[in-house]
TrEMBL record:
Protein's UniProt name: Gfo/Idh/MocA family oxidoreductase
Keyword Cell membrane: no
The GFO/IDH/MocA-like oxidoreductase domain, residue ranges: 133-258
Boundaries of every Gfo/Idh/MocA-like oxidoreductase N-terminal domain copy: 6-123
Keywords of the record: Oxidoreductase
InterPro entries hit by this protein: Gfo/Idh/MocA-like_OxRdtase_N, Gfo/Idh/MocA_oxidrdct_glycsds, GFO_IDH_MocA-like_dom, NAD(P)-bd_dom_sf
A family per Pfam: GFO_IDH_MocA_C3
Annotated Gene3D superfamilies: Dihydrodipicolinate Reductase, domain 2, NAD(P)-binding Rossmann-like Domain
Species of origin: Paenibacillus thalictri
UniProt key word Oxidoreductase: yes
Domain of life: Bacteria
Gene Ontology terms, MF aspect: nucleotide binding; oxidoreductase activity
Length: 340
């Protein structure tokens, strides 16, 4: 049985609330919750019986009883909170994306290494049973090779405006494509070789985000070639019209012998349905979704207890950042970019 760790959750927004519930479901004790928005803080703490709250993360992190600091703040805070927590000798679980730049990621990694603590990264969507099933079908060669995997994400201008700030959350290529890139790599079991992409700032005239000094690219069509010869493609936008009726297409994977379509890694619905096609045969496969946050925290806590490798840490986080930056470089230069 795993030890019950004391956790400080930093941030009581969408992810903060999910972290609190996930840690509790994984059998650990969320002893303190932090947010500078006191109303939100009180609500999430009361709903989940969290005994202590604070508005300053340093107050929570420095408590001697805290074993793990779970960071759910906007991207710009991932580095400062990680450095502070490592300095206090705490293990750290941080939301994706890893950092605002590769230099910051390096500083975080050094601080964690020097402190001798562990660091996990929030890619819970990659634990979706949908991904595991599709990966198994690929391994069984149900579809043949090479494969094409496609994903789609179309949304309105985000209500969390900081998502559009080039100096904040850096737009969907950095903030969100990382989930899809990791999913593709996991299913294909291959590393990216080359990227080409077109895109731009389609929401540049929208008044809601006009106050930012620099806007991030919000729309792109992306193609990633893999060492295996497989191809990943994605259309992503956060620039749709308000109250748009556009809907997303399901994830799709196909090869010379067959394919599968469905939501492979959506974590907010309780049941997934995948449509498996082999030759002219097709069948619907129902998959029960898990609380993926609880699953990732169980893995992290087990790695602490066993002093084993974290499920996802710096190398994967940096790999995803490099691929996102390669996409942005391709959009800016109009050229294909090779990923080492
Ligand atoms: N893994 C996933 O599936 C997933 C999904 C969405 C977001 N995220 C990531 O989670 C992180 C947080 O995103 P979110 O959607 O929860 O954002 P959010 O805006 O809902 O919540 C962030 C919270 O942080 C608080 N905050 C900001 N600065 C603070 C500070 N200095 N001190 C104390 N509180 C502060 C805000 O008041 C807010 O309540 C981001 O890195 C985002 O990319 C991950």
């Amino acid at each position: 049985m795993c030890k019950r760790y004391n956790v400080a959750v930093i941030g009581a927004g969408d992810m903060g609330a999910r972290h609190v519930k996930g840690w509790i479901e994984a059998g650990h004790h969320v002893m303190i919750l932090v947010d500078m928005d006191e109303q939100r803080l009180r609500k999430v703490a009361e709903e989940n019986n969290v005994p202590y709250t604070a508005t300053d993360y340093k107050e929570a992190v420095s408590r001697p009883e805290v074993d793990i600091v779970s960071i759910c703040l906007p991207l710009a805070f991932h580095m400062p909170v990680t450095l502070y927590a490592a300095g206090q000798g705490k293990h750290i679980f941080c939301e994706k994306p890893l950092a605002s730049s590769l230099e910051q990621a390096q500083q975080m990694e050094e601080a964690v290494h020097n402190a001798g603590v562990k660091f996990g990264l929030g890619f819970q969507r990659n634990l979706s049973p949908g991904i595991a099933v599709v990966k198994k079908w690929v391994e069984e060669d149900k579809f043949g090779r090479p494969l094409v995997i496609s994903s789609d994400l179309l949304q309105e201008v985000r209500p969390k405006r900081v998502m559009h700030d080039k100096n904040g959350n850096q737009g969907p290529i950095v903030d969100t494509c990382c989930h899809y890139f990791l999913m593709w790599q996991t299913i294909l079991q291959s590393k990216p070789r080359k990227v080409y992409a077109s895109g731009g700032i389609f929401a540049k005239d929208r008044p809601e985000i006009a106050h930012f000094e620099q806007l991030a690219v919000d729309t792109a069509v992306i193609t990633v070639e893999y060492e295996s010869g497989d191809i990943g493609t994605m259309t992503i936008s956060w620039a749709l019209a308000k109250d748009t009726k556009m809907t997303n297409r399901n994830d799709r994977l196909f090869g010379p012998k067959g394919g599968v379509q469905g939501p492979f890694n959506i974590f907010t619905i309780p049941e997934l349905e995948l449509k498996l096609m082999e030759g002219d045969q097709s069948e619907r496969v129902a998959i029960h979704q898990l609380n993926l946050h609880a699953e990732q925290f169980k893995l992290f806590a087990q790695a602490l207890q066993d002093d084993s490798q974290e499920y996802i840490s710096f190398s994967t986080g940096k790999e995803m950042m490099k691929l996102s930056y390669a996409v942005l470089e391709s959009i800016e230069t109009g050229k294909a970019v090779y990923v080492s």
